[in-house]
Structures are given as C-alpha cells and as structure tokens.
Amino acid sequence: MSRVCELTGKRAMVGNNVSHAMNKTKRKFDANLIKKRFYIPEEDSWITLKVSTSALKTINKIGISAAIKDAKSKGFLK
C-alpha cells in the first residue's frame, strides 16, 4: 500500500537536495503518516486508518465522525 493519508490524500512530494556548491539531486519528501485505530461510537466499531499527523490534529479538533464525513464528501474515503 502506498504512503498516502486516507483522510486528506496527502502523499510524497519530490524536491531537490541542494549542496553548498548548489548541486541539485532529486529526493523525495514522504508524508508524515501513522497507523491509528479509531473508535466510531455511532457504528460501535473500531477502524484502522493510515493518517497524516496534521489529519490527526484535525480529528482531535472536530472528531472522527466529522472528519470521516468530510473525507467522504471530498472523495478520499470510500
């Protein structure tokens, strides 16, 4: 499975390593992802999601139910 946040769709970015002599080589910036279990009280069940840490802060702020509803409306979660 690829390293993509299941709630926000964040994925790896491509950039450059730049040396002191300004030589540039390609590199990859991976998203900061963690695998986390969440309890959904409406469904009385647990789900496991691979989420970015910024999405985790959003879940802590608005709740898991609202975050899942928002992700479904944006098409990131099925």
Automatic annotation (TrEMBL):
GO terms for biological process: translation. It comes from the Bacteria. One of its GO terms (molecular function) is structural constituent of ribosome. One of its GO terms (cellular component) is ribosome. InterPro entries: Bacterial_rp_bL28, Ribosomal_bL28, Ribosomal_bL28/bL31-like_sf, Ribosomal_bL28_bact-type, Ribosomal_bL28_sf. It comes from Pseudalgibacter alginicilyticus. This is Large ribosomal subunit protein bL28. Belongs to the bacterial ribosomal protein bL28 family. Pfam families: Ribosomal_L28. Keywords: Ribonucleoprotein, Ribosomal protein.
